[in-house]
Amino acid sequence: MTVTRVLERDTLDTVAARIRSHVVDMCAGPEGGHLGGAFSCADVLAALYFSVLNVDPRRPEDPDRDRFLLSKGHAAVGLYATLAERGFFPVAELAGYGRPGSRLMGHPVRAVPGVEMPTGSLGHGLALGCGFALAARYAGRTSRSFVLLGDGELQEGSVWEAAIAAASLRLDRLVAVVDRNGLQLTGSTESISPMEPLADRWRSFGWAVRDVDGHDPDRLADHLDAAPWEPGKPSVLIARTVKGQGLPFLAGRSASHYVTLSPRNHARAVRALRDMEVAG
């Protein structure tokens, strides 16, 4: 299935830049947010929602839609920014993120249009994706299920139980994306729990694997839209990313994991994103 891109004038890079801009504004609010991980996956989200996923903001419950699960639910600010840009709810609602009475909470909930399941308890998303893929098969639908995981999340044993199940059930309409930014809250993933060679690990579990630059949304879209890559095998895209991508004072640092941007740092971030857009 090939989904026609919804973009007419903008590029996927432009959309990803707007997603990051919204994230910066939300993280400048009183509650702050998980900026680093939202920035590292912004290009993945732009590729999915504006080039790959068969979804319609006017019909968020369409039974034939593709499903997307943000297993790394702490990056909710990135998902909210993407859903708003895609038209699931007004962009103006982002300004209320984390405020009393807002449905935009620290982790995604079903009250938000376009959110399939509440997530944030790491290690559960891939199993949920298996369930969606299996249900689609039983219902005779051709829809695909996409799951975005954090690389630190791969330390959860439930991820690999789901990986085994997906391969044994031949769920080739299931696609996982690993946001491989190499960092988690307390340091680098490789110093805490080494997982390289990561591609070989997924292959050993029976998955079709591709390992790509996670900050090239056009290439990401091409790879993701082509899934399934091998008949009878679930697909996993390892997206090599940088935590806090685009902000020189936070990029590649664990300190970007959760931030509440001061007015000064908010202004620095806005300038950095503007410079990044001009350079691009």
From TrEMBL:
InterPro entries: THDP-binding, Transketolase_N. GO terms for molecular function: magnesium ion binding. Residues 15-263 form the Transketolase N-terminal domain. It holds the Pfam family Transketolase_N. It comes from the Bacteria. Gene3D superfamilies: 3.40.50.970. This is Transketolase, N-terminal subunit. It comes from Streptomyces purpureus.
